[in-house]
Amino acid sequence: MDIYTVEGGYLGGFCAFGQASDLTKLWFTLPNGQNPPMVQVRLYDRRCNSYYYSTVAIPRLDPFYTHTILNNIISSNTGAGIFYYSFMNEGQILYNDVWGNSQDYHNNCTGNTTFTPQPGTGQISADPLFADSIYHLGKTSPCRDTGHPGPEYFDPDATRNDMGAYGGPNASGQGQFSGSGFIFTSVGNIPTSEILQNTASPSLGLANVSPAVAGLLGIPQYFDAPFGGGLYINGLFGDVDIANGVRYYQILMAKWVGDTAPAAGDYAPLHDSLYKVKYLPQPDGTVLIQYVNLGAKTIMGTDNLYELTYHEWWSNLDLRIIWDTTQAANGKYTLTFKAFRENPMVPGTLIQYYPMPNTLDHLTLMVNNTYCNATINKVMYNNNVEIPACGMIGLNSNTENLKFDITAQHPDGYLRYWVLDAYYGKNQYAGRIASSFYPGVVPPNNWPGVVNAVYNSSDGVLVPWQDCAYQFYLWAGSRITNGFNYLDYQPYSDSFSDHYYISIGNCAWCSGADINRDGTVNLADFAALASQWLRTCGPTCSID
What we know:
mainly beta; 4 domains; seven-stranded antiparallel β-sheet; 37% strand
């Protein structure tokens, strides 16, 4: 049995334990006055040749104190700052600033208002120089970097602990912001600043990212994009809320009715499953990995709760829920939250906690999971005669026009683009016949695309036709995003392929009886033949 600091320093060990109860008697020594570091115990099983590691622990100093008052600022009370029964070796009062109270210290045993805390290490009595009404420390505050010097109390920036509510490893820093309140920060990689929240705008709840902002953030240039699929909803609580004990939360949603926002009673909590990876660095340099279910859970009698990750090493530290929008009807939704802390008056129960409100503690999103549709309805000669599927296309020249009747649409008007391309041979790109991209319209769900629209190959940009097999490829994509990218897979996009063989250089009226290509051999074909009688037939001849 070996004991190490979390940095890997060896503190001591045992090798003669005979029974499991001996594990309750671990100890090590330190120089007098030195605070114990956080430690981890390694057990070596010699029979199985295996190592086992404990969780990180803070050792207990002997003599043992029943309680400790540590790292506080107690200021400007009309009564006593610390009202206390002062017995030697009963408790510790360490690294506090007790200042400006009617009585800074009151020993209720003796009535002595000027008793010296035992042992009293690090105590000061000075104006804490608060910077604001919620007790942040000013730059010159004597409480900065004067809390307990042990590394287990370090601030998130790895400096010595500040006294007061904003000091220590759970203070403002990674995973939270300074102050009180909850903010929805992003959906996937899209900051909520780029999701329109103006309730008077027809683009309410849609992602709109300018080219400049997209370049700064390294994300796509979303333009009137609704949301679909699984949404990673991220958010932060303030450090005041963390200091006040917020450890659980709910994410609630409600659907709009047309342009009418939901009422307070319309909201219901989401309950999608949320897992994260927790990383546990070990003294030997390895990192253990845990897969942790954070919700939705029933905790202390309250349903649909998620555990709050706000410090330590977690994947997606600020991720609050992954909302599966495919289980929700299309429409406009507003998300909000509830925060919970343990009830100090009734142990084993929770009470709702109310952070300061702000304009981003709720978030409106337009949700749409409707399918796209892309179909090449038919391919026609220039005279509008339809070419049978998989048929031979006989062309008089390598620039002869073909017509394409297509449908490319998003039924709810959220189409982003459609393209009609041609390929030949072994994946050789022949060029683009036609295309269209969302131009921006008002309202933004009013660009469904095209239905039974006809486009000419002569209007496209194509290499000359080849004697070869051809594929005509139509692809339509919606503007729907999951916050990381446009959803260009089915059903959010759709594609359609048509295959033919093109033969060039033989006049249709020379090589086939259906000269006018109307699908029937009749007198009209004979008339066409008669009109060309005794003319030379070559690759440039044509007939309408």
